[in-house]
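Worked example

This section walks through a single chain of length 299. The input is the sequence exactly as stored; nothing has been trimmed or padded.
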Amino acid sequence: MKKYIVVMIALLGISSCEKEVKFIESEPGVEYRLVDERGGKKLGPNQAMMLDLNSVYKDSVVMNIKPIGGFIVNPTKGVPPMLGKILESLGEGDSAQIKFNLETYSQLMGTPNIPNLDTAESFFINIRVQEINDESFFVERIEAEMEKAVVVQAEKDKGIIEEYLAENNLKAERTEEGLYYIVKEEGTGAKPKVGQTVSVDYIAQLLDGTYIDTSHKTVAEENKIYNPQREPYEPYSFPLGQRAVIEGWDVGISLLNKGGSATFFVPSKLAYGPEPRPGSPIPPNGILMFELKLVDVKN
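Given that input, the structure is written out below as C-alpha cells.
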C-alpha cells in the first residue's frame, strides 16, 4: 500500500500523523469522507467546480483526468447523482475521498465489469476542489486554453512533418491552413467546387507506416486491416466543403484536378485533433498521410 499512500499524500496533502477520517455511507455501494476542509466558498447558482481528480484501485492510479483548461463539472447537472450530491457538499479547497464497490464504480464510469478484478476490493476517487466560479468564466478560460494548445500543436506538427519530408527526400507544398501535399498526377479534368460531389480513392496511414483505412480491398487485405463490414471497397463520395470529412480533405481535394492524385500530410488540427474516434488506431493529435486520387466530380 506504500504507493497508494504516496498518491494520497501528493493529491490531498494528508499528513501521516493525522487521525484517519471514517467513511460515511452516501447510498448503497458508495461511501465518502471529507479529508481536508478549508472553509472555502460553496457552489452558487450557475457555478461549476474545477477538480483535481483521480481513481485508485489497489496500488494503482487507473484514471487521472487532466483536460485542457482543467476538469470542470457542475454537480447539479451532467453528473451522476451519486457523485453530484457529494460534490455539492464541498467548498473551494476541500478534499474528499469516495469509495465504491466494483459494480457501482462500473455503473458510474459507464463500463462493464472488468474481468479478473477482485470484487472484494474497492475503487477510490480522490477529489480536490481547486476552484469554484461561474460556468461562463470556466468556458471562456477553456476556450482560450484550447486556442493556445491548437497553436502549440500546430507548430509541433509542422516540425514533425517537415522532419519526415527531409528524412525521406520529399518536397511538398504547404497551404495556408497547414496541409502539406505532393501532386503526383495533374489530372485532365476541372478542379472541383464547393458543394460538388467528389469521389476519392485513398490509402490512409500514420507517419510510422501504420495503415488506418483504405478504399482498396487488396491493400486492406495485404496490410491486415480488411473489414467485411467495410464492403464494398470503392471510392468514397462526399460533398466538398460541407464538413462531411476532415478539414484536410476539404482543403486538399479542392487543389486537385479530376483524375489527379497526390500525397497529403494532414496535421492533427485538420484531422481528428486531440480526441480521435474511440477505438481508432489514430492517436491523440495524430498526423495522417494519404495517398489519394480524385476519380470523379459531379454536380
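What to look for: Helices lie at 2-12, 81-88, 102-109, 135-167, 217-222, 247-253.
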